[in-house]
Design brief:
The structure is a homodimer. The first copy, chain A, is an alpha/beta fold. Chain A folds into three domains: 2-56, Orthogonal Bundle (434 Repressor (Amino-terminal Domain)); 68-167 and 302-333, 3-Layer(aba) Sandwich (Rossmann fold), CATH 3.40.50.2300; 169-299, Rossmann fold (3-Layer(aba) Sandwich). Helix content of chain A is 42%, strand content 14%. The first copy, chain A, is built from twelve helices and twelve strands. The first copy, chain A, has helices spanning 11-18, 22-29, 39-52, 58-65, 83-96, 110-122, 138-145, 169-183, 198-213, 231-244, 256-268, 302-317, and strands spanning 70-75, 100-105, 127-130, 150-153, 163-167, 188-192, 223-225, 250-253, 278-280, 297-299, 328-331, 334-336. In chain A, helix 2 (22-29) crosses helix 3 and helix 8 crosses helix 9 (198-213). Chain A is elongated and about 90 Å long. The A-B interface holds A 5-6, 55-60, 62-63, 68, 77-79, 81, 84-85, 87-88, 91, 100, 102-103, 105, 118-119, 121-124, 145-147, 260, 286-287, 290-292, 294 and B 5-6, 55-60, 62-63, 68, 77-79, 81, 84-85, 87-88, 91, 100, 102-103, 105, 118-119, 121-124, 145-147, 260, 286-287, 290-292, 294. The first copy, chain A, binds a DNA duplex through helix 2 and helix 4. Chains A, B: Keywords: DNA-binding, Transcription, Transcription regulation. Chains A, B: It comes from Enterovibrio gelatinilyticus. Chains A, B: This is LacI family transcriptional regulator. Chains A, B: Residues 9-65 form the HTH lacI-type domain.
DNA sequence: GTGAAAGCGCTAACAT
DNA sequence: ATGTTAGCGCTTTCAC
């Protein structure tokens, strides 16, 4: 067995083996500079470096060039079933385009988020996809201050300070509300997500305004706030809802996890879903089809979300002309009717 | 607005601002070298670099030191619900220990896997956690040849060539088999995972040997192979099972996804689960509690899996004496009885 | 078309 | 206790 396990083969080694200069090797191996080198030498270099097992050291390249061919993605939490599909999509795409995706997790903690974004930028990522923004968010400012290409997905800050790709929350809530209204519901509650998160706020606003459009008066369309987008928060919000508005026949939860928590609590007090009360979610998390109470919900265009974010980010990185002004893309969700909704009892 | 957005602040800048040398700044900021510097200077440097917004460039450090404080983890696919919990666990732990985790995906494709591991090593990760090994796997060889610290989790190659942390498949199958046997089942089938994956093979072997222990003859304990650990493969395997062994009253699937596919097919031909036929899984994927047919399965000690792998890897990286010989850790799964199993019909 | 030399930002000798 | 120098591996002027 060879004893140079740890010895790295460098351009120098390849150059020496070929009796040429490191610069030539470098050029021969770089697609953008190959044209400066004779075909014969290119071939020689390619064969030799392959043979010697040469792989360029990305650290050195990055240090020299300032670009890393790496993009960073921040998500709150990989355990939240919404994110794996999005990460997958984005990973596939960036990879295909020659970039490496680095994940960072914020745990929905703004301080941690800032630390992590600092780390990403210190590591010289070429750009950042932020799927964890709060409405006021120092991470966004940090990226912008440092001139880092940035796109926000799904959750955004209040002003259009960078590219954003969003799901049309209003349309989603509209579809859900209409679905329930057509079933005959006239007392519909909303379990809202945190106000500090754009999707929480915009779904809440959408709900209020759409209730009005359908001539459902505010006291027949109560809103309860959940403190987080989690099962437990949904359960707790539902306790309050049941106490304060026992008359509601349907609940639009701001996401699937809240809806699950809601169902949990409803069943705990003996309600039958959907007969006693209809419940809807938002996002269409994986495996919902398999659930005991398959949730009626609204599904995200995950592929487009990923696609758009990557494209926008790359156009920023390449400084394409169309990236001169922040852009906002609004993607459409799709109603998925399952078994958690039906006509109101009686 | 300042126009030096892109300008990186370096040790040199901080040193210049303080009228001292870069090395002193470097030392003052490095925990291991601080003791070589006067307390007064340390304080000065810390304040100044904070004030100037200095962050070390990890590329440069890596290039110089040869170590990146980065560890790589390879998983087949982030969409497989087994992996997020494991990734989460490992991520938390490595982060706490000052390491950054980089993920790579193999899509269960050996060639892609090799490419990815090469990339990780080219990027100079300090070690690799491999959760995607095949029984014969060039990725393992590649790591070993390059002297990279490596631990295999959950799926391993045939020989003990590096540290491994495993779930005790035999124990898991035993618990499931015993559970079904006690319920009265005497015709139990196994839907096996691919033979090329260690967990597929070892669960199959476990099944065969345990059937024998319980004096269930081989023709009352048929084994059907699925081509992958997926829902679809489970469905297809079940078609064959139903044709060839209509008499079975219970199925032990090699993992949850296979079990789901199995259930899908059984229901497609009008069977009622668990009354007509009991089905069990393996792994206890998230949200199983919520499922229409909550799966009886065996749950993995995810925390320990993550914990052990990280510890072992770090002990290799630090070249602790206990890492001189490959170690194999066998963790115990736990039976989780839900609603997909009951006494055999009639 | 190719080589020599400098430098990205950092740290580890080797001075002093 | 601190400064000076060199070099990690690469790319890129600038020469020829």
């Amino acid at each position: 067995m060879d004893n140079d396990k740890n010895k790295r083969i460098t351009v120098k080694d390849v150059a020496a083996a070929l009796g040429i200069s490191p610069s030539t090797v470098s050029r021969a191996l770089s697609p953008e500079k190959q044209h400066l080198v004779s075909d014969r030498v290119i071939e020689l270099v390619e064969k030799k470096s392959e043979e010697m097992g040469y792989t360029a050291n990305p650290m050195a390249t990055a240090l020299k060039r300032g670009a890393t061919k790496t993009i960073g993605m921040m998500i709150p939490d990989i355990l939240n079933p919404i994110f794996p599909p999005l990460v997958h999509e984005i990973q596939q795409l960036t990879n295909k385009l020659g970039y490496t995706l680095t994940l960072a997790y914020t745990e929905n903690n703004q301080e941690l988020a800032l630390e992590e974004v600092k780390r990403l930028i210190a590591r010289n990522v070429d750009g950042i996809i932020l799927a964890s923004a709060f409405r006021k968010d120092p991470t966004v400012d940090y990226c912008l201050d440092h001139g880092k290409p940035l796109v926000q997905v799904n959750r955004v800050i209040d002003n259009l300070a960078s590219d954003q790709v969003l799901v049309d929350d209003r349309e989603g809530i509209y579809q859900l509300f209409e679905h329930l209204y057509k079933l005959g519901h006239r007392h519909i509650a909303h379990i809202a997500g945190p106000n500090e998160i754009s999707s929480g706020l915009s779904r809440r606003h959408a709900f209020i305004s759409i209730a009005d459009m359908f001539d459902v008066s505010p006291d027949h369309a109560p809103v309860i706030s959940a403190r987080a987008f989690s099962e437990l928060a949904g359960k707790d919000a539902t306790k309050i809802l049941l106490k304060e508005h026992p008359e509601v026949t349907a609940v639009i939860a701001a996401n699937d996890l809240l809806a699950l928590g809601c169902i949990e609590e409803l069943e705990a007090v003996g309600k039958i879903i959907p007969n006693d009360i209809s419940v809807t979610g938002f996002n269409d998390m994986p495996y919902l089809d398999w659930f005991r109470i398959p949730l009626t919900t609204v599904s995200l265009p995950q592929t487009q979300l990923g696609d758009q974010s990557v494209r926008m980010l790359l156009s920023q990185i390449r400084k394409d002309s169309d990236s001169a002004f922040p852009r906002k893309v609004l993607l459409q969700p799709r109603l998925v009717v399952r078994k958690s909704t039906t006509t109101p009892r009686k």
